[in-house]
Amino acid sequence: VKMMHMAHCVTLVQLSISCDHLIDKDIGSKSDPLCVLLQDVGGGNWAELGRTERVRNCSSPQFSKTLQLEYHFETVQKLRFGIYDIDNKTPNLGDDDFLGGAECSLGQIVSSQILTLPLMLKPGKPAGQGTIMVSAQELKDNRVVTMEVEARNLDKKDFLGKSDPFLEFFRQGDGKWHLTYRSEVIKNNLNPTWKCFSVPLQHFCGGDPSTPIQVRCSDYDSDGSHDLIGTFYTSLAQLQAVPAEFECIHPEKQQKKKSYKNSGTICVKICQVETEYSFLDYVMGGCQINFTVGVDFTGSNGDPSSPDSLHYLSPTGVNEYLTALWSVGSVVQDYDTDKLFPAFGFGAQVPPDWQVSHEFALNFNPSNPYCAGIQGIVDAYRQALPQVRLYGPTNFAPIINHVARFAAQAAHQGTASKYFVLLLLTDGAVTDVEATREAVVYASNLPMSVIIVGVGSADFDAMEQLDADGGPLRTHSGQAATRDIVQFVPYRRFQNAPREALAQTVLAEVPTQLVSYFKAQGWAPFKPLPPPANGTAQAPQA
């Protein structure tokens, strides 16, 4: 199989996290904690791997969302857990109270049943109170359970209103009940329909349809003292017999009243077990990753012949542009069989008529802008540099739209056979902000991702907005991107880090972006995959 040299069988693990005795930062109530997981990628840089849900008003939360990561026996994977009190809707954690963190290696978690660590404010400085408990489970199964659940005639629990119901699912194991999913709260409603949700099958029932499952329906109280409405016991096999109905029973009420029937009915409308394909399933199923490069030749880079220019080639023939290109390109090129990469420049006056161009072929051959390998792009760049006049403005939209045209053609085929990654190397703020937003929102519906590496020390605030970590990117008319496809990284953060650290950070989101696109289209891998011989999940080496 193509790429098998890269696709070592890597074990996927999922971490279950809970905390005890967290500090209460909120006046008059308990904290609203969330746990974020980071991994050390070298050079003092940490990459976020995921976060749990936020649990409201709770100083000893049990998080239902597990965090998944690859386990590499051959490397020490340093992890950092951060617990934050979330009091706003922004995904940025800088404006939330830090309740404490803990560092350990994945090996430590894997080798202990439950690893308990005291929370620290920083290394050597304890938070004063609070612990975190982490346990790991190997993920051998790539199936997920997708469910939609509603309820009828729930008991009224609130003195002035109805009830604010939410659901919790637990699986039985080792003589204990393990939380596997907690729904959202629906306010003031005795006949709620909860949002459709998906949980890894292994987490939900250990992969066994007959494992006992407990479902609890409770009335949410803002002080954290939730009242039980009722509960029932079932199994995945019973839940799948849709439409399935279960009586919600409150044990104390049942004992006290002979006439007691139930405290409401829970109806399972959808319960499906589906295969969740991974990045490697798609790549090994024949998906080609087409890599395109765009290089900024605007005047703000400085005269290339001057040593303080970002385009100045040192005596060894390198600069920040080339270092960034090598770092990212050397990883991506392994996923492209023909190793022919289109490479463009933008923001320069180009011969012979010296018109400003925002998408000129680096090899000056518009009908065949392909360069052979990353080295071919480097050679074309070095040859183009003395032949163009640096100018402006910094327009991204033409190159994004150029790649989008190819991505749209690929999407028409209706198969998971091609995905496009555009690497933009730039020294400064984008000029055509509105056109770039339009281009990115349009491209978010196509099989493509955009990586922007900011070179030099300019102000990159406008770039951070394109990287929609603060909510979906929108056009002027209000149309929202269907998914986040832009990853922006300032190169200077990685100047002293190992070369692979930049690539790991900028490429970290591409697998998820690729999977999210093909999943949204409902496309399975292009070629069917043979089942793994040993039953372990397969994933690429980082």
The profile of the biggest β sheet is:
7 strands, mixed
Low-confidence stretches: 1-9, 532-542
Tally the helices.
12
Structural class: alpha+beta
Number of strands: 26
User: Per DSSP, what share of the residues sits in E-state strands of 2 or more residues?
Assistant: 25-35%
**What do the pLDDT scores average to?**
88
What percent of residues adopt helix (DSSP H or I)? 10-25%
**What gyration radius follows from the Cα positions, in whole Å?**
26 Å
Shape: elongated
What's the layout of helices and strands?
Blueprint (H helix, E strand, L loop, with lengths): L10 E10 L12 E10 L2 E7 L15 E5 L6 E8 L11 E9 H5 L4 E8 L2 E15 L3 E10 L12 E9 L2 E7 L14 E4 H5 L7 E7 L7 E8 L1 H4 L4 E4 L3 H6 L8 E11 L3 H6 L3 E9 L23 H13 L7 E7 L1 E3 L4 E3 L2 E2 L8 E3 H12 L4 E2 L6 H16 L5 E9 L6 H11 L4 E7 L6 H6 L19 E5 L8 H9 L2 H12 L21
Parallel strand pairs: 17-18, 17-24, 24-25, 25-26
Antiparallel strand pairs: 1-4, 1-8, 2-3, 2-5, 5-6, 7-8, 9-12, 9-16, 10-11, 10-13, 13-14, 15-16, 18-21, 18-22, 19-20, 19-23
